[in-house]
Description:
Blueprint: H1 2-27, H2 35-63, H3 65-70, H4 72-93, H5 97-103, H6 105-133, H7 137-164, E1 192-198, H8 217-224, E2 227-233, H9 239-248, H10 252-255, H11 271-278, E3 281-287, E4 300-304, H12 315-324, H13 330-344, E5 349-355, H14 373-378, H15 385-389, H16 397-427, E6 435-439, E7 445-446, E8 452-453, H17 460-463, E9 464-470, E10 478-480, E11 484-485, H18 489-496, H19 512-515, E12 525-527, E13 536-541, E14 544-549, E15 555-559, H20 575-587, H21 609-618
Parallel strand pairs: 1-5, 1-6, 2-10, 2-11, 3-4, 3-5
Antiparallel strand pairs: 2-9, 6-9, 7-8, 12-13, 13-14, 14-15
Helix pairs in contact: 1-2, 1-4, 1-7, 2-4, 2-12, 4-6, 4-7, 5-6, 8-16, 13-16
Bound molecules: zinc ion.
The site of zinc ion has 6 residues, from loops.
Amino acid sequence: MIRRAVAGGALAGLWCGALDSMLATAADPTGYPSLLSFFLAFVILAVVVGAAYALLAVAARLLLPGALRKDPGAYSLSLATFLVSLFTLSRIAGLDAISAIRENPSSAAVELGAILLLSFLAGAGSWLLVARISPSPSRDRRIAIAAFLGAGCLSAAAFAAVLMHIPSYDADVAISTPPAERALPDNAPFRHVILLTIDTLRKDAVTAYDPDGAGTPHIDSLANDSIVFENAFSSAPWTVPAFVSMFTGLPPDVHGINRNFPTLPPTFRTLAEHMAGAGYQTAAIGSQPQLLRIGRGFDTYQLGPSPPVVHSQTTAGRLFNRLAQQDWTTEVITDLAVQWLDEHGGDDFFLWLHWLAPHVPYEPPPAYLPQSPLIGKLGQSFEGVSSVHAGREIRTPSEREWLRILYDAEVRYTDDAVGRVLESLQRLGIYDDALVIFTTDHGEEFWDHGHWEHGHSLYDELVAVPLFIKLPGAAEATRIGAPVSTTALLSTILDLCGAELPDDRSIVGSLKPSLDGASPTRTPVYMGAVEYFEPREGVVFDDFKYIVGVASGHEELYDRAEDAAEQDSLVGSHLGELERGRAILEKRTRPSPAGEPAPDSAGDVAPSDEVQEQLRALGYVE
Length: 622
Ligand SMILES: [Zn+2]
């Protein structure tokens, strides 16, 4: 009995593991599950399915003693088939049981009912099959095991075939010169370049931008020493495409990456690769698991919580990662950053630090919470993301106010971390001469347009971002009002460092001329790569923002000077500006369909004069 349960469960687990890996591979062909993932999937699912098998077997022994004695092999096979079908169908349906049931109980119940019925039919079918072809119980057990092993081998073969057709991207550090041999030219303008980013940082939470902000004295002190961009925009309203744009200089319609855990196509040369090529040591420290595989060019890439031991898209992978990961708190990141600076302060370096704290879940340390009756009433933290999206929680104005209080506390908490790093730079005597850039990947909506969180729109609460650049010495506080994109950071940082600018016309041009005091050229700023709902694109030009739905063609036009909250679309009344927005987006050249790596635009095919003229008009060519 126990032996059969172990064997049946292990075989069912093998099958589930193979299917799980294949389904994950089919869903994300660039992030193939490793052999380790496959093995872990098998072990974890063998234990889980084996336990379920044993439970059902014990139940059957009590309920159906006669049938079990008569046809033990048929029973084993049908039970295992039932479990494998249940797992596979649930996986294909994308039914993440607990959250799905909480979000939409009635449709989840129908789906679950259908899955149970189909699984039961599969189990009953396999029973009949074995009972029919096998005259004796002992033969019948052998047939059942053979059938299962056969299915397992077939699954493994299919899995291997899928693996062989996956393009392999080299996500490893790809720098030819080892750090010890790199050297900056003597006349390099900066020996220390530090990019500070805070995930999900709403522009109006930074007090340097809004006196009613969360209270960010350390970030504000950096802003006071910097040139502040008053109208900076992210290329996208969520993490991955926004950072890919920053690190490749490519707008999202060119890089085409709009999904989690991407690797970068080899044709993209990253900011870190350029900086290593220019002679800097490169390091990244922070927390953002979605970015674990875009670290090409960094000598050190410590982007916690931990390296993806197993593929995160597999069921077993998610389970395993949840158990194995330790939380990289803001303190851990800051400690690592300070330690890294202590060890490398004398080197020529490019360091990127990224804090995740203001991102959901909102769990600020209690010391950062204000005195508020809402905290006493509703609690000190919140993590029910899916139930808010489903409209089941946080429906009253005071609950919404409470969430904003928690978020602002997270911002103050992270501001203290920024303060520790700035203090460390000052203590090491490298603050004054360092190039420091501060920004975020996107903001956070608090029902400004009827929603919460981020990823879903191109309104300012998500795409207008803080951006400031500290040059050597305490600069006169300067503010630049022209709209700019954080996609320009690659060119800007390389330009400021005197490094060679990439010869790629798709890469957004440098902001250095406006930092040098040249009157800023007002080039349109492109944004796209919306994560949820309809794909949309937008462009900011002069004081206007134009947004269009890619499928529906639904258009919006806002006068940013008159209507900063973007509440009244002017589509019906401002035909001139509407035409201009349409024309800017229509003129954009798209080198590749979304989702595909863009071809290497520095290759041997030069754009036509007409295309070059369009790129110049859009600000992509100087
Ligand atoms: Zn983010």
